[in-house]
Amino acid sequence: MSLIQAGKILELFYSTDNGRVNTTELALDDKGVIEDKYYNKDIQRSVLITSLDSYKLAASNGIDAPYSALGENILMDYNPYHLRPGARLTIGDLELEISQNCTLCKSLAKIDAKLPKLLKDDRGVFAKVIRSGTIRKDDNIYLLK
């Protein structure tokens, strides 16, 4: 297998009962993001990856959505939405496998009523952890080919 550099991590987030937390690093294992309130809930949906393109699309339609508003754990400058389930990404010592496209989320309507429909196919992708590790802001992202 070869690695192709695809992009960089721009921001990292996890969810708590008190809201979203922006952090400089995340530890992940086969159950998901270790500090996240959704840890060990649904392995197929344990990590949400969003592209900066989603925020640009919202902004180009007059919607101001702050980073993390889409619920992502990883915000990157690479758009992975074309990747099929089974595709793998490596970030540092971590390996992720794309498991499914992100589903339409009605909670996005709290930001703007148009947002759920606008981002129907452009909100992100879910991944599961194949190899545990810690990732950091500004880490390079590699696509396994």
Task: Kindly describe this structure.
It is a single chain. Helix 1 (52-60) links the parallel strand 5 and strand 6 (74-76). 9% of the residues lie in helices and 43% in strands. It has a single domain, classed as PK beta-barrel domain-like (M1 Pyruvate Kinase, Domain 3, Beta Barrel), CATH 2.40.33.20. By secondary structure, it is mainly β. The strands form 2 sheets. It has a 7-stranded mixed beta barrel. A 3-stranded antiparallel β-sheet has the order 4-3-10, with no helix packed on it.
Briefly characterize the structure.
The protein has 145 residues and is mainly beta. It is built from two helices and eleven strands.
Helices and strands, with pairings:
Blueprint: E1 3-16, E2 19-23, E3 25-29, E4 32-33, E5 47-51, H1 52-60, E6 74-76, E7 88-91, E8 94-101, H2 115-118, E9 125-131, E10 133-136, E11 140-144
User: What's the structural domain tally?
Assistant: 1
Find the CATH superfamily: PK beta-barrel domain-like
Q: Give the neighbour order of strands across the main sheet.
A: 1-6-5-9-8-7-11
Cα-atom radius of gyration: 14 Å
Query: How many alpha or pi helices?
Result: 2
The portion of residues forming beta strands comes to: 35-45%
Count of β-strands:
11
Uncertain parts = none
Order of helices and strands: EEEEEHEEEHEEE
The helical percent reads under 10%
Largest sheet: 7 strands, mixed, barrel
Structural class call reads mainly beta
Mean of pLDDT: 94
Assigned CATH architecture: Beta Barrel
| Cα shape | globular
The span between the termini is 6 Å
Kindly report the CATH topology: M1 Pyruvate Kinase, Domain 3
CATH class, named Mainly Beta
